[in-house]
Structure formats: C-alpha cells, structure tokens
Write a structure and sequence with these properties.
elongated
Length: 177
C-alpha cells in the first residue's frame, strides 16, 4: 500500500512537472500566442524580476528535466524494484522541495506551492516508512508483544530483557562482573 501511494505521488509530480516545464519553456521560446494557451495559465513576466532569468525558458527546462526527469526515473525504478529505486525517489523528493523553496523565495505564494511542497514531504515520509525508519502501528505492536514475552523487543542495543541498561562504560564494567 505504501509503495502504491509513493508511485501515485511520484507519477503525478512527474507528469505535472514535465507538462508545466514544457509549457514554460515552449511558451518562452515560441511565445504564448503560438502555443494557444489561455491567458489565465500563462505566468506573468513580473515573476522573473529579481531572478537571474529574463524568460521562463531555463526555469521551464529545469522543471521538466530535473524535477520531472528525476520523478520519472524514480517512478520507473520503483516499478521495476531496482536496487537504486529508494535513492532515486529520495533525490526526486528533495528536488521538488528545493524547487518549491526557491520558487517561494522568488515569486508570490500560490496554493500550488503548498500542494507540491506537501507532495515532496509525503514522498519522504513514505520512503521513511518503506525503509523501516519510521515505526508503523503494526511494527510497534510487534515490538511491544516481543517485549512482553521477554524477547528483548523493547530494549536498545546489546542490553537484553533480563538486564538493565547502565549509564557509563565504567558502570557497565562494574555490573558485568
């Protein structure tokens, strides 16, 4: 279920990043009139003031190639269960977070920025669940059950259920004798 959610988010971000980046780049290169885009979805040139860009060509290419490309690669690798799938998905998640962070520092706030930032955070959260770093309710219940039955599930490190953890290495030497 977690992989399916991650694939859905990766796929949606990939598609929208590729499409948005292409519209930005082609709109700057060909002109918005030639693309036949409605005026409501065209980005105003005022957003580029104070940025290193004079047109949306480079930002559009970066959005499509970097963010969209990384999300597409992560989606494909995760579908194939490739050994680098989690690394690719992590890189993709950070790419959208960085993209939105930079975008928010340059242009006025938009609800889409919040949506895509949340998507990046969701990607990272799902990856943590897949890697077993963030405990799930099922794993917590198993650990508690193991602790009740004396299997050492509720302890950290080399300390077993029948011994208590002691603070300093000196204290450990005294108690191990």
């Amino acid at each position: 279920m977690i992989i399916v959610l991650l694939l859905i988010i990766l796929g949606l971000v990939a598609l929208t990043s590729l499409a948005g980046g292409m519209v930005m780049a082609l709109g700057s290169w060909l002109g918005p009139d030639r693309l036949g885009l409605p005026p409501g979805i065209q980005l105003p040139p005022e957003y580029l003031e104070g940025s290193p860009f004079s047109t949306y060509l480079i930002p559009g290419m970066l959005l499509a190639c970097v963010v969209g490309g990384l999300h597409t690669a992560a989606f494909v690798l995760l579908m194939r269960r490739h050994r680098f799938a989690y690394l690719a998905a992590t890189t993709a998640a950070y790419s959208i977070l960085v993209w939105i962070f930079v975008q928010m520092s340059l242009i006025p706030f938009s609800a889409l920025q919040a949506v895509y930032f949340a998507a990046g955070l969701a990607e990272l959260g799902l990856l943590l669940l897949l890697l077993g770093i963030t405990p799930t309710a099922e794993r917590q219940a198993t650990a508690q059950l193991a602790g009740v039955h004396g299997l050492g599930g509720g302890t950290l490190g080399p300390v077993r259920g029948d011994r208590t953890a002691v603070g300093s290495p000196h204290d450990r030497q005294e108690h191990s004798a």
